[in-house]
Amino acid sequence: MVENRESGVPPLMEVRDLSVTYRSPSESTRAVRGVSLCIRAGETVSLVGESGSGKSTVALAMLGLLDPQNQTGQVRYMGNNIESLPEQEWRRIRSREIGIVFQDARGTLNPVMTILDHLIETLRAHQAFSRTESRARACETLQEVGIPAGREKLYPFELSGGLCQRAGIALGICNRPKLLIADEPTSAIDSAIQAQILDLLQRMKERYGLALLLISHDLPLVAQVSDRIAVMYHGSVVESGLKEEVLAAPAHPYTRSLLQCQPSFQNHHEKKPLAAIPGAVPKAGQEFPGCAFAPRCDRSEPRCRESVPAGRKISETCWVACVRDAE
Asked: What is this structure's pTM?
């Protein structure tokens, strides 16, 4: 696939033609198909798509958490292929330079440890801090993410979903990484809190100069903080470009459909019903001779079903995997 590099700024993290296949004794499932993506220092890239499109698998590959035998392609950090790095060095990078915020923050926290102890343990595991120093850094970080003083000694089950998510962000940034990967950070919390969490991520990015990979199924929501957006469908990136281009003139029918499905105050069950993408999401691993979106696309033609469309540039900063020009 195409991935733009015209900005002249070298990528902090780069994925090149990544494919991932999950194998079991009875079958093999292709979860990611030839994905290319780059993230530069200080920018926010959003990876967007429906559940099951392969977004989280890409994140796991970027963190070096998948079996190398199940993946092909390259994942490069600061120009180095992570597979060529010694395991000890990669563990250091994963801990100190790349942070992660998981979708289910409460589920990733140890239920018998206080929030403060989580951060102290993380800091001392990866930096030469004394317990006093790590405690001071932990308290400072917790207050930065909006956990009030006095609640740092609470256990995860004593915190709301929003506060657990803030604790997860604190764990992700406490070692001051260069890159933060946030996997569906707003999906498990109330809609009223989602904007607060996105605002918090944006403030942490600006304060510490982070690059941010934001994984989500909600295109309009992540657009508030994104610099670039990559749209995934059935394991492949089908469109990627600057936020302004992707939102104002989406080139792929799937991207347009995602935007049209978003509810607004203009929707009315009779005058303007909410749009829906026809058909169903393909089963994981289902193979298609051509474009995977063709069976659901109202603009498909015979050639769409005959071969997988190659990525093509439609501007200096945007590309699409579709044989038809946008209308």
From this structure: 0.89
